Amino acid sequence: MYSNRPGPRAFLSFLSKDARGVMTRASEHIRKTCQKTYQLISTQSTESYQRARSCITSVQWGKWIHRGYWAVSILWTLAILGLFAFLGLYGALSYRFESGDSACRSDETFNPVISQYNAWAISGFFKINVGFGNLSFTKAKIIDIFWDIIAGRGVQACMAFMSWHAFSKYVTTSMEFAPVTYTVFFTVFLRREPCLYSTFSTARSFISCRGLRSKIAMVFMIWSMVLITAWPTIASAMTGYRTNRESLVFDYKGHYIPFKEFQPIAYIIHDGWRVNLTGDYIVSLFGSGGAEREPIISYWDNSFWGACSFDHLSDTGVDCSLQEAVSNYVSTYGFFGLEHIASSFGDIEIPSPVLNISAFYLNPDGDFYGSKEFGNLSNAAFVYSNQTYPLTYVMKNASCQPTVDCLKWGFSFIQAFLALLSLNIWTIGTSILWHEARSNLRFLPRTVIPKGWQAVLILAKNMKREIDRAGLDVNSLTEDQLTDEINTRFRVGFRMSSLKHHL
After folding, report:
1. For residue 98, what is the enclosing H or E element?
2. Spatial CA neighbour of 469 closest among 436, 500, 492
3. Can you spell out the DSSP letters for 367-378?
4. What are the angstrom distances between the C-alpha of 195 and each of 13, 201, 224, 361?
5. For residue range 260-312, what is the model confidence (pLDDT) as tens digits?
């Protein structure tokens, strides 16, 4: 009865065949869909690429490159002139840029008189006296390395590019009026960068063979080649890092004492016991209760910064009552105790004679009485541990000692000034050379400035013609012999006419 029915295996086999068919159709559909998607994406990408390429090629890149060259040249000139003007201003007013918190000057010398600092002092030629920051050794070294790469090699590359751009134009126009030697042609149109050998060879060609129309142009070109060759060394030599320093004074006992522990002397009350003080009592220009600071003499009026100001006691928070009392006393009774009369010192009545008070150096524009009589800075003195130290002693026996692991990175002012002066001369000279050559090229419409392989072919053809004319067999000559023959026989070189012939 059930013998004709398919069994389970046959049923499963049927299902398997049906599933395979479904899978085959699905995979075929997916394949076709992926192929259409790929073709669509490929077509869209190709069209987008072609549109982008069309837009890029439609741009007048030569015009934009020319404008970019002008923009870079203008920015370069403004930057160089601006830095040069700043250094000139700094050199004229270098003391105004000095710190009023330390007697250690930028050239690592000790001097509490700021107005006496001069950045032009030849002793600071190799010193880093324009410094910045409080850096660790690692940070200072990283800055130094980046400077050598960017300002050294980078600027050298820019200078070489701009110089040879101007040189090639100028030599091309000069060849219209006078021939140039093969050495000059090779250096300007083929080497296109300076080195010691090319600089020497070019200078020798200008001197012993044939030069250009303008002797000034020849001198400038040689000077520019020397400057560009030496620029990385110049850029590296004028920078560096130095330690931050602390000012110390060698006291009478042979110890180095921080200068901030010295205070400038205003008055001395020689008979101070008469007003409940000690004999030869020293009254400082600084009041009590304030923070310790180094006694620095300002550049403005040769006054000690931080000295008592009797009209601003509440603002400073410094007690200057003793200084004010002594100033009022000498304004009434005078110096040196010459009056034989009774007097009063604050609330203390003093029998005749008056107190014997003398002074050392008083701020010219300060509130202390007696600045006209005691306004000679050379008489200034300091007190430490109740002992008097004249300014002359402090200047002779003080020094600036380095602090631990704290550096400033910066420049030698004189070297930086000379480097920027050279850059300004180079910038102006190159601009004049380029402008003159560009003006002359307008009258030579058929002239093409040779570059690359074109310059190689021109040089080779001219030399081949001269060699054939001289009847030389170059295969039988050594390199030195061939060089001598070229230097002796072919000193004339070739003119623009031969250049046009090969172009």
Report:
1. none
2. 492
3. SSTTTTTT--GG
4. 87, 10, 11, 60
5. 999 999 999 999 999 999 989 999 999 887 778 899 998 888 888 888 888 76
